[in-house]
Write a structure and sequence with these properties.
11 helices, mainly alpha, 242 residues, single chain
Length: 242
Amino acid sequence: MIIPRVLENPRKLTQLVALVKYDLQSSFPGVFWVLVGYLALSYSLITEGSLDTVERQTRIAFLMEVVSPILAGFFSNSALMGDVVAGSIIFSATRQSMTKLWVRRLITVNAAILVELIVFHLIIRLTYPGIGQFSEVFISTPSCLLVSCLISLFTLLFMDMNAGYLAGLFFWSANFIGSKAILSIFGPKPYIFLWWASLKYPPQLEQFWVNKALMLVFTSLLFILCILVLNVKDKTLNLSKM
């Protein structure tokens, strides 16, 4: 109901676009150009002439399911901390709580990543009509949300973006570099890059949707923990303003 009303009112639509732009710039300055550069680089990698169909599909899965989550995580990491570093968090929190501000910006950042994945998929379909399905966009989304919430949790706990970067890079690297070890020890259910792994290694797709459901459960738990941490920070901020 909200979206149709916004579309009917040009002024509200303009305000919404301005808010989205502001949130993206506050979260990660230059995010638009980073995404454009990522799309350009991705296109050059998948159109390499020496690739066969399986290699091209594997590279597409790598770009969408492995690279996109770390981008989403890095963009989300400064969703709130950008204001903290700039010293404007108290001003931002006078209009709404830090919790609401963080949730809004987390949604905005991951929506931007989703749009980037959709555009990338459309480019693939136009270039190689026989490759790719639209469901692959949503297959990659749980990984983006999981990494975003994990990085955000460590950043909010320590109120330091470096803590989020280190935790996110460690988790991402462990899953990427140690993919064979994780799959052999834990199996495919908890592995966050299963689509990519199913193309690179022997098929692991019998647990595919269980894997995605588990990732959404873990993401929900991390999201709830972030909310709890932010509620404590909000109370501290309110006490400091009294």
